[in-house]
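Hi R.,

Here's the chain you asked about this morning:
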Amino acid sequence: MARTGRRPGNENTRESILEAARKAFAERGYDGASIRYIATSAGVDPALVHHYFGNKDQLFLAAMQAPMDPGAVLPRVLAGGIDGVGERLIRTLITIWESPAGAAFAAMVRSALQHEWMARMLREFFTSQIVRRIIKHLDIDPAEAPVRASLVASQVVGLAIARYMVKLEPLASLPNELIIKMVGGTVQRYLTEPLD
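And here is the predicted structure, written out as tokens:
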């Protein structure tokens, strides 16, 4: 007699879960894609998703093939409170972009510029994994949070494209400390100054 129910874990289970997760996150966003929904789409028990990936954040990072975990990096950015957070964020991102992980981020951005599903995934990555954490920690007015988040993301993505991918001069050759001061100051204004 054949077994019924969800299939047990095997060598293809992890990839099936990742494929279902990519589709769910792209279609429903981070908040709308539950572990249960992803497990059902992959034809597995939710416990297997937890077994392979731990939690939703880790599943999302694996689905994105993110080269770093913002949950491990952002506490250093946020440790000093709101004063100077813009410069600390840009310093951290420059350090990452200039490491081996930078090539993986460049690949993510290139893919997002060519494929709508990857663009949605990248938006979700910036929103749910980076900007939302910063805004929550800094206790910013929730009504203003989406605008502030998109302004910060515009600086981060714009800097990455112009400096590291297009290599726009003289921006590409400016000293890191100057970029950190100038762009970090803009990020700081986006986070703290009145929007009007």
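One quick note: DSSP finds ten helices and no strands in the chain.

Cheers,
M.
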